[in-house]
Amino acid sequence: MDALYTAVATATHGREGRAVASDGKLDVQLAPPREMGGDGQGTNPEQLFAAGYAACFASALGVVGRRAKVDVSEAAVTGEVGIGKQGEGFALAVTLRVELPDGLDGETGRALVEQAHQVCPYSNATRGNIPVELVIE
Fold first, then answer.
1. Cα-Cα-Cα-Cα dihedral sign, residues 86, 126, 51, 7
2. Closest Cα partner for 52 from 22, 81, 24?
3. Where are the domains of the chain?
4. Of all helices (H) and strands (E), which one includes residue 134?
5. Which InterPro entries does the UniProt entry name for this protein (predicted)?
6. What's the CA angle centered on 122, arms 120 and 125, to 5 degrees?
7. Spelled out in words, what is the top-level CATH class assigned to the domain 1-43?
8. Do residues 104 and 98 lie in contact, with contact meaning Cβ atoms separated by under 8 Å?
9. Residue 112 and residue 61 in contact, taking contact as beta carbons nearer than 8 Å
10. 105 pLDDT band (50/70/90 cuts)?
11. Are domains 1-43 and 45-136 of this chain identical in fold?
């Protein structure tokens, strides 16, 4: 792969620390959620992953929509990232909820979402590694 861009971020002190991008545009306090025994006073890696995947998938949907000459500019994608125990470690599962624009019929919308899932770099990275459910709302 020839990288067009490389994001660089550094995290210190794990889930109870801070994550900062090399350009300073991202600087977040990290904290485990209450559900995992934390105080919930910061963001967590699952929220960051959910936001990144949702944004990336929405962009991929825009790419396939433009190719098909279908306006999906009003679509919204919500990422849900669950974390749970698996064996001795932990695992992730993702649900992407895609709200398509009014007037986009079910068959065309489903086809565009499926195509976006083939184009999206996050989808390509997770495919075969963690479950990803696509829900059209």
1. positive
2. 81
3. 1-43, 45-136
4. strand 132-136
5. KH_dom-like_a/b, OHR, OsmC/Ohr_fam, OsmC/Ohrsf
6. 110
7. mainly beta
8. no
9. yes
10. confident
11. no
Query: Tens digits of per-residue pLDDT, 5-34?
Result: 999 999 999 999 999 999 999 999 999 999
Beta strand 27-29 with 18-21 is: antiparallel
Burial profile 38-67: b = 16 or more Cβ within 10 angstroms, e = fewer: eeeebebbbebbbeebbebbbebbbebbee
Pairwise CA distance, residues 74 & 77, whole Å:
10
**Residue corresponding to tokens 């929509």:** 65
Task: Provide the pLDDT for residue 34.
Answer: 95
H helix and E strand count, the chain: 3, 6
Whole-model pTM over 0.90: yes
Residues 107-120 have pLDDT tens digits of 999 999 999 999 99
User: 84 CB contacts (<8 Å, ≥6 apart)?
Assistant: 90, 91, 93
